[in-house]
Amino acid sequence: MKxxxxxxxxxxxxxxxxRGARLARLLTSHQLSAWGWxxxxxxxxxxxLVVGELAANAVTHGRxxxxxxxxxxxxxxxxxxxxxxxxxxxxxxxxxxxxxGAVASDPAAESGRGLLLVEALASRWGCExxxxxxxxxxxxxxxx
Length: 144
Description:
By secondary structure, this protein is of the alpha+beta class.
């Protein structure tokens, strides 16, 4: 009897630098391609954008000397809502993003809109504590 795998998982630790954030985005595209979603498909493009934003935020706002950030990708096809769950975990748990509160205060500002992009692309997203002092920001993208 052939078993059906309903969950695929990838997890990697990255340096808390712009180069680490870029590598996280590139490896997301590579991993999704290996799982059958090429970079040019909607899921591949959306996942690369979401990982880019969450990784950039981890590098900018979650950086702690000597501690990297972790990217985890999980494809779950076994539930009622098949999805790709993207998680970025960093060491700074004191500055939590707020869903729905991601708006740049200055309309002319060149930053501050990344979570609006995540909110637009994801079916749901949020943040949870990561003991002892960090946080995990996650977003779920629909597979269909």
